[in-house]
Amino acid sequence: MTHHPLDRFGWAPGRAGLFLDFDGVLSDIAPTPDSAVARDGIPELLEALQERLGRVAIVSGRPVGYLESMIPASVDIVGLYGLEWRSAGVHHTLHEAEPWRSVMRELGEEAVAEFGNDVVEPKGISLTLHYRGDATLAQPIAAWSKEAARSTGAEARPAKLSYEIHPPIHRDKGTALVKLAEDLDPVAYIGDDLGDLPAFDGLDELAQHGVATVRVAVSSEEAPPILLSRADLVVDGPEGAQALLEELLERVSSAPR
C-alpha cells in the first residue's frame, strides 16, 4: 500500500511540527517586494492547524514586521533567517545582530544611489537588492553585493532574482528549524527557493536522529531544480501549497491529540 508523506501527521498531531516559507508558498509571487500578501484563507488555515499541531511557524527571509499583520498571533514567526523572531506575540532580535543596523542602513543608502529605490529592500539588520523587474541588473547587483560584503565583513547570498546582504552570523532556515522542532515528530517544511535548501538540510539532520520528516517543494517557473529534486512531495504553486494545508487540516482534525 502506498502511503502519503503526511500520513504520520494524523497519528499524533500534538507532537507534529509544520514550518513554512512565506513568499511563493503562502503568498503568490508579487511584482514588487512590498506587494506580497497572504492568500485569502491562509491566516485562518494556519490558526486552525496551530490549534491541532504541536507547532506551526513561518520561517522567512522577510522581517517580522512585514509578516506579523498577516500571520495569526498564535503562529510563531522567524524573520531574516533567524536574526529576529516573534514568539507568543513578543518580538525579539538576536543580540549579536543589533550592531549591524547602522551598517545595513548605510549600505541601503549607497544601493539606492547606485540602483534606485525600486531595487532596494531595507530589512533593518539585512538588505536585499532585487532584479526581478530588470534582468540586466543581475550581474551589476551581484558584483555590488559581493563588494559591499567584502568591504564591511558582511555576507552576500544569492536568492530568488535578488541578492541578500546579511551580518556574518551563522543563522539560516536550517538552524531555525532544528531549534523550533525540538521534541517534535513528525516535522515538515514547505519552501520554494534556494534559501529553503538549508531548511531541507535541517530536516535531514533531524532524520538522522530518528525524526520522521517531509520536505515539500512548491514548483513554479522560478523554483530551483535542486530544491524540487530533494523534495519528498512537490505541489504546484501557492495554490497547491494551500490545497496541501487544507488536506493536512482534514487529516488531523479527526485525530486524537
As a whole number of angstroms, the C-alpha radius of gyration is 18 Å
Q: Number of DSSP strands?
A: 12
Q: What structural class should be given to the helix and strand makeup? A: alpha/beta
The span between the termini is: 25 Å
Give me the number of helical elements.
8
The profile of the biggest β sheet is: 8 strands, mixed
Strand order of the largest sheet: 5-4-3-2-1-10-11-12
**What portion of residues is helical?**
25-40%
- The CATH superfamily of the largest domain bears the name HAD superfamily/HAD-like
CATH architecture of the largest domain: 3-Layer(aba) Sandwich
Total domain count = 2
**For the record, what CATH class of the largest domain applies?**
Alpha Beta
Query: Which fold name fills CATH's third level, the topology of the largest domain?
Result: Rossmann fold
Q: Overall mean pLDDT score?
A: 93
Element-level helix/strand string: EHEHEEEHEEHEEHEHEHEH
Low-confidence stretches: none
Percent strand: 15-25%
Write a structural description.
The protein contains eight helices and twelve strands. The longest helix is centred in the C-terminal third of the chain and has 17 residues, at 237-253. Helix 2 (64-67) links the parallel strand 2 (55-59) and strand 3. The radius of gyration is 18 Å and the shape is globular. It is 35% helix and 21% strand. The protein is α/β, with parallel strands linked by helices and 257 residues long. It has two domains: 7-94 and 171-253, HAD superfamily/HAD-like (Rossmann fold); 97-166, Alpha-Beta Plaits (2-Layer Sandwich). The protein has an eight-stranded mixed β-sheet with strand order 5-4-3-2-1-10-11-12, with helices on both faces. Strands 6-7-9-8 form a four-stranded antiparallel β-sheet, covered by helices on one side.
